Amino acid sequence: MASTSIPQLHIPAESLRDGQCLITAANLRKWYAKPTGERIDVLADISLEIQARKVVSIIGPSGSGKSTLLRLLAGVERADGGSVTYGRSVCGEPPPIPIVLQSPALLPWRTVRDNIALSLELLGRSDISVEVEIYVKLMGLNANLMSLAGIAI
Fold first, then answer.
1. Under 8 Å between Cβ of 134 and 5
2. 115-118 contacts: CB < 8 A, separation 24 or more?
3. What is the DSSP letter of 31?
4. Phi and psi, residue 54, nearest 5°
5. Dihedral in degrees, nearest 10, Cα atoms 77, 83, 87, 92
6. What pLDDT, in 10s, does the model give residues 25-72?
7. What's the whole-model pTM score?
């Protein structure tokens, strides 16, 4: 049986040494305003390091700021205080960081295959069809990949 490899993000090989810090968050703060104008502090002085080739879990009760922290680390949202460093670039352009959403977020007007390809398209990948096939095999998808995602088969 042929082995299937997962395509790597476009991160330089030297960034993937064991123990090398890929993302550092220092004193992150994030708050939101209620419609009344009241300020809700979601994150206060959060600091962490994410190292190459390590698995990181963020665990906490609902509403504790886990998703907010991930959005800040991925560069989807900006922190109200503190800094995020990617490699050696403080608050620079974040590298492409894949995100898995808490709730299903398929685009019903795209096929199943096109939904899988979307993040690869946004990353500007060139040979998307090969990567999509790899992910289809890894996830064990047997559904009709050309059907619209919003239609149950």
1. yes
2. 115/149, 116/145
3. E
4. -115, 150
5. 60
6. 999 999 999 899 999 999 999 999 888 777 788 888 888 898 899 888
7. 0.55
